[in-house]
């Protein structure tokens, strides 16, 4: 509880300012601060509120435990960075090691109204992405300024990533999914406490991007999450994304131990492994988990990230006990309204890599690398045949001679195919709204253009929802960018309020009403300079993928 003690100490020596605001929850008093949106609209920020005991010592590799009560007033008015241990410096922090902590389970609450107003506002609970090995909920990375203008409360929460959040041996000693259980405890905190901030616990919508979107859909699948939210939004990710499931988790757990100590006895049982890993310092454990190379990051996007959620053995606190694809197919889900989407070219960032063409050549030299493990093919000749069929989806020639088509392959393999399939299957059981974000503007970042590919890359849509560290300079962007941001934000907040992104015809949306996906009529919203209702996303290639999996893959599927 060291960080909590520090916050309480500074709270005791600081005088209250006019912009400070106090909230009392069952755990104790909390002090927040007043902030302002980009258009000068005030909101209130409460940062780094602990929702769990520090997951250190014997709580490392354990389910999170609810935080204990505190005395005095917790100072949640400071913009202090607290990150769980990361695999890489995704946010380009100058001295990242100074803000990495194992004691990292804190959340932030942002509300547009003074909590004393007794409002019952809808709540948007955000889960960050980062491949299950990076990510944080900090104000500088996910500023709520845009969303605060739409009459909703926003909650962002840290969860453990990498080995700390997802190491598993597949038994009850190290069952895994600690990061998902951190999210679960944060959602339970929201249910129990958001009313004190003016939020309605019965109107919670969870949303997330990339690994955060996969996390959202794991909550859709888990019985543990029933009753904690009434709607969900998944941006560029799903539980059936190929990168969201690691099949070799037990080997990886022992690889971490061997990376810590090359003399580690790999015949040790799970309890001995757990004891060994708990003895290591957090920094050493994180370094060991990051040092060994299972395969490259690009390969992990196709075949499965190193640390991911796993299917647990059946036990009292298990979060996931069923394989993902059959769960959606059979409707074993929390049947709440779902909004899902993709960016128009998720993998376009690959084109900016200097060795992109040579990496494509390496796939041409071994076409079996185009084949995902989720096809469950073992025979080398079958893999080669499948690889040839996959290449033919995009070109009759060589991918290295048409790099735009190569990028499209990576986009579809890593993101589009699974997200579209998820939406198709879930539309049998709940309302599903699907979008493609096609608007390309400076606010989203300058992405490379490659002939034959689309423009909007992975995570580019998030720049239209969240204010990053340069948010005070929004006025340098075009009116088209601002309109795109207003539209995207309002679609999300409408969904949180009304369970419908376009509950009525209005000029902001060009009077369009966004139709639901139906099992045999897949309509979606294309978000570009204008809004367009279209049919069958990625319709020139997606049906060919479905046909290939039906004819060549070995069922049952786990991911897609």
Automatic annotation (TrEMBL):
GO molecular function, one term: carboxylic ester hydrolase activity
Transmembrane segments: none
Keyword annotations of the record: Disulfide bond, Glycoprotein, Hydrolase, Serine esterase, Signal
Residue ranges of every copy of the Carboxylesterase type B domain listed in the record: 21-537
The keyword Disulfide bond belongs to this UniProt entry's keyword annotation: yes
Its EC number(s): 3.1.1.-
Signal sequence coordinates: 1-18
Pfam families: COesterase
Top-level division of the source organism's lineage: Eukaryota
Protein family membership: Belongs to the type-B carboxylesterase/lipase family.
Protein name: Carboxylic ester hydrolase
